[in-house]
Amino acid sequence: MIVIKNVSKRFGEKKALDKVSFEVKDGEIFGFIGHNGAGKTTLIKSICGIMDFDEGRILINGKSIKTEPIACKREMAYVPDDPELYEDMKAISFINFVCDMYDTSEEVRERNIKRYAKMFEIENELQNEIRSFSHGMKQKIALIAALSHEPKVLIMDEPFVGLDPKAIFDMKEVMREIAKRGGTIFFSTHILDVAEKLCDRVAIVKNGQIVEVGDMKKIRGDKSLEKVFLELEANE
Amino acid sequence: MSKLTSLLNATMSGGIQIFNYRGKTKRSRWLMPTLLAVLMGVLILISAVGMTAELKEAGGESAILSIYALVTTIIIVTEGIYKSGDLLFKPRDNDMLLAMPIKKPLIVFARMVKFYAFEMLYCLIFLLPALIAYAMNVEVGASYFLIAITMMLLIPVIPIAVSCVIGFITSAISSRFKHKAVLEVLLSFGFLVICAILILNVNSASDFDGRSAVTIGNRITEFYYPAAALVRLATDFEIGQYLLFVAINLGVVAVAVFLVSRFYFKIVTRLNVIRKNGNVDAKYSFRKRSQTLAMVRKELTRYFKTPVWLTNTAIGLVIFVVAVGAVCFKFDDLVNSLADSVEEFPLTVDEIRAFVPSITVAMVAFTSLLTFITAPMISLEGKAFNMLKSLPISGVKIIMTKVLSAMILIVPVTAVGSLLMFIKFQFSILDLVLVLLAVAFMPLVTELVGILVDLKYARFDAESDAVTVRQSASVMVATFMGLGMVLLTVSLIFGLVFLAGQTAGLLMVDAVFVIVALFLYFTIVARGDEKIVKLVA
Fold it and tell me: Of A142, A225, B262, B413, which one is least surrounded by beta carbons within 10 A?
């Protein structure tokens, strides 16, 4: 479970996040939607302990990311929007490196790496250096690394960018599977169709403020999510 | 705006990394690097003024100009040899520029201009003090100021062109092989050795009495045209000679640009080709490691796959190995040649032999305190630093595993060297223990300083690894600090050894390093997590 309470963050004069509050429950797939520069990545980086925030609280399964960062990070995995990984490492070494950080047992990592590498059709590429990969392949490696230690909370920034259609389909299946197990999925996206079909709840952020949050059905009503989003964007 | 101006504007927009890090205020961005550069320049000015006065007495004051012109050239060439390949062929904006309708010579020229802008720093630190010292000692006319400005602008041109051509040759050869990084390191070292041999040959080929700086200066003007032109124009200005000098420099640039740009696209393309392992039945290892071991493996992989970083930091270790060999096998010859070069040398070979433990510690100090492996280590994480921060590892552990990785690279070399000295010269076990303490704590202090400097000056968006490794604020500040630490430490070693005796002196030196290391370690333990949290790539 993720609890975000009155989180604010400034970059000089600009308020990137302004008293953002919402919760993501266990077993839920939660979409975070907003235009470019709305504050999505800033919030995601704050949740993951990558970026410090000025005010408010972020709790991961009851623990504060500010006061217990390591305990929080042990429960979650982060997939960045731009998969800038360690280019000099072989893919398998990188995934093992991430597993080592989480103290993942050899049995668990072997099972998961084999499973997800096969699912993303990349099992014959793992011995190659990451620098030789395309954007989409790097994204797949970042996803495998994130999934291989079986996180309870999965946080992803634009996870579908660069993935091929089959990988997007498989990724959605994995997300549903983790949520079914009671895990928490929180991701940002621009692809409203995906959010509409996949998310249990969404939050729409605009200029650092949450303008709408709730059940997908409730927010959408009779309209499409795209229409709701564009209407909210148009309203000043 | 012309295409070239726009291109130069774009390529220079990242600034010269040194003065462009994430400081809290505008002033803090440039204050520390500028102060250190000015301090270094002032120290060189003081030494140049004293040297010029002595040269004037000997009737050869213009030698100061040729000597410093050559020193500036040597520094630019030796540094350029291993970083020019990266700066020319590996900037991150290559794909974008190559996709645009820009002629390759323009791209190469823009890369060279950025390289040149950084090397001007060496002109300001080394050549400018010599030009000022000369003007202070000799009555100069108005033309001297024109010459001084021209020389400041043009002395780096030929060494930059030469090192760009060497970088081009290195990249052209290494790009053809699978293990490009290994080839690049070997070729860079090869060129550095050739450079060193040429310099040594010039010295030994000259038939002058080595003590006379005037003769050295004259000798330089015989084989190095820019130095000769500088001396000739400073003492007797002729417009024809002046224009010829400017034309020759421009010609050299044109030739270098033509040569490099002719094969630019081919080399960039080849460098981007990474051969993949096509084994479809590959067996992967899923071995579990501790966080510390996993981090160290990651750091060492990065180090050995970054030729410019490896070459930059391994030079000191290679020199240490050569120095240990020379001291072990040519000790008497070394002492005798030292005695020959100093009037009334006060010690005999056997008396100096008794000081071998102190000499060993001084050699370890010289190597360790100038080998800042950690200084670019956080910056080299690049954007992956965000991913690292999301993992359940503390900031302090991230920092300390980087320091540990650097220690793993340095300590075995200096420890084996010190043990060889012990075996050869049979000094006491107590002295050996003190030497080994220095072997452990001197690099520890250096690497802790290096990582703290990078925590303050880290930047994650450099256009290439060469910029982070050679042209960043953190490396420049660390290098200046290292030079200061070497001077202080070597003075401290011999001062304390002569005052308190060898064993007591070395014990005190070690004590200083242990205390400093502990202080730096506890600083990192206390503030490391907070510093890492504040850094965002």
Answer: B262
- In terms of residues, how long is chain A? 236
- Quote the crossing angle between the two packed helices B157-174 and B104-122, to the nearest 10°: 120
Q: Which helix (H) or strand (E) holds B466?
A: helix B465-470
Among B25, B272, B292, B391, pick the best mutation site for testing chain A contact (most A Cβ within 10 A): B391
* Mean pLDDT of the A7-22 span: 93
Residue whose C-alpha is closest to residue B472's, from B118, B125, B167, B184: B118
Cβ neighbours of residue A206 closer than 8 Å, sequence gap 6 or more: A34, A35, A38, A232, A233
Judging contacts by C-beta atoms under 8 Å, the chain A residues touching residue B390 are: 48-50, 73, 76-78
Among B157, B129, B150, which residue's Cα sits nearest to residue B234?
B150
How many structural domains compose chain A?
Answer: 1
- Residue B247's contacts (CB-CB under 8 Å, 6 or more residues apart) are none
ipTM of the complex: 0.92
Answer yes or no: are the C-beta atoms of A28 and A184 closer than 8 Å: yes
Q: For B25-80, give the DSSP string.
A: SHHHHHHHHHHHHHHHHHHHHHHHHHHHHHHHHTT-TTHHHHHHHHHHHHHHHHHH
Q: Are A66 and A51 in contact (CB under 8 A)?
A: no
User: CB neighbours of B170 closer than 8 A, spacing ≥ 6?
Assistant: B81, B85, B184, B187, B188, B191
**Hey, are the CB atoms on B286 and A106 less than 8 Å from each other?**
yes
Cα–Cα distance between A124 and B325 in angstroms, integer? 48
B397 in contact with A, Cβ within 8 Å: no
Instruction: Check residues B121 and B523 and name the one with the higher pLDDT.
Output: B523
Within 10 angstroms of residue A143's Cβ, the number of other Cβ atoms is 25
Task: Supply the CATH number for residue A216's domain.
Answer: 3.40.50.300
Sorted by sequence, the CB contacts under 8 Å of residue B182 that are 6+ apart come out as none
Paired strand residues for A153: A76, A184
- b (16+ CB within 10 A) / e for B486-496: beebbebbbeb
Q: Which two tokens stand for residue A191?
A: 């692809």
Q: What is the pLDDT of residues A129-140, one digit of tens each?
A: 999 999 999 999
Tell me whether A228 touches chain B (CB under 8 Å). no
- For B131-200, give the DSSP string: HHHHHHHS---HHHHHHHHHHHHHTTHHHHHHHHHHHHHHHHHHTTSS-HHHHHHHHHHHHHHHHHHHHH
Contacts of A157 in chain B (CB under 8 A): none
pLDDT one-digit tens code per residue, B303-322: 999 999 999 999 899 999 99
Write the CB contacts of B101 (distance below 8 Å, at least 6 apart in sequence): none
Find residues 63-122 of chain A whose CB sits inside 8 Å of chain B.
Answer: 69-71, 73-74, 76-78, 80, 82, 84-86, 88-89, 92-93, 96-106, 109-110, 113
Taking phi first (over 0 means left), then psi (-120 to 50 degrees means alpha), and beta for anything else, what does residue B282 get?
A: beta
pLDDT value of position B94: 84
Report the interhelical angle of B63-89 vs B180-205 (nearest 10°): 170
Compute the nearest-CA separation of B380 from chain A (Å). Answer: 10
User: What does the pLDDT average to over B445-461?
Assistant: 93
Instruction: Scan for tokens 């909210």, then name that residue.
Output: A232
Tell which of B289, B293, B387, B396 to mutate to test the A interface (max A CBs under 10 Å): B387
Q: What is the pLDDT of residue B14?
A: 63
Nearest to A125 by CA among A113, A137, A112: A137
pTM for this structure? 0.87
Beta carbons of B533 and A52 less than 8 Å apart: yes
Q: Distance from A217 to chain B by nearest Cα, in Å?
A: 33
